[in-house]
Amino acid sequence: MQQQLRYAIILIAVVLLPTKLLAQREFYTPKSLLIPLHDQKNQLHVSFGRGGGYDFNLSYAFSNKLALFSAATFDNDTKKRISILGDRYNVDRNDYALKGGLGYFTNTDNPVFPIIEVYVGAGITKVDNYWHFTGNTDGEVTQAQYWSLLGQFNAGKRMAKSEYGLGLRFAYSQYTDFNFYDTYSISTKSSYKNLTGLTADPVISAGYTLYGVNINAQLGVAIPLIAPSVERTDTHTAYEGSNEISTLIHSQEEVRLYSVIGRLALQYKLNLHKKR
User: Where are the alpha helices (DSSP H) in the chain?
Assistant: First the structure.
């Protein structure tokens, strides 16, 4: 009975789930949303957290309506995962992401969401990961890089000891490089050409302030809005004596960009204006 159930799960996964779920893992790595909830000029927001790596966010309100922001995330660690079939595997990562942009904020009369923010920006992400099943050194290497254009809307409220917010980000991403191969069969290497994607990233955020520092948690998901068909090239290399012979196989494949978004961080706000 258990064996039949396992076969049924495999069949459902093959039919319903995206092709990429059964191939290289975690090639799309969106980071947490910036939700500083600015409400006045000369306000500096600083945060350090853990979410898709260790990250550092900085934003500064240089006027009563406008703010600049920047963010950096570095992920050089091993993630432990469990597949939909219960198999355990590791993902060894060496990634980074950088982004920055401009924001607009305003105060409203809404008692639930008195602070409204809108941000636009751009970012670049490098992905270098190696996943393999636990206890097995063979796996798959993925090396990719993509840039993104970002548009984001925030709504939230700050209180004496706590704050909460909702965020919705739209991200258009384009891969400039995307290569992957199995370590047990390095004679075959694969790549995608001109992969793009558009996602909607809704998140919820909540924090509690203790000794002036806000302990903040964020949870959301990146939802693919399009599933483009991209060109995949598989390069097979063989040797006849001292001669190297390469065979290229081209095909079309639908690729969806999706991911879970989460973060736990320490945040601090500093008002830099001078009191009269």
Answer: 2-16
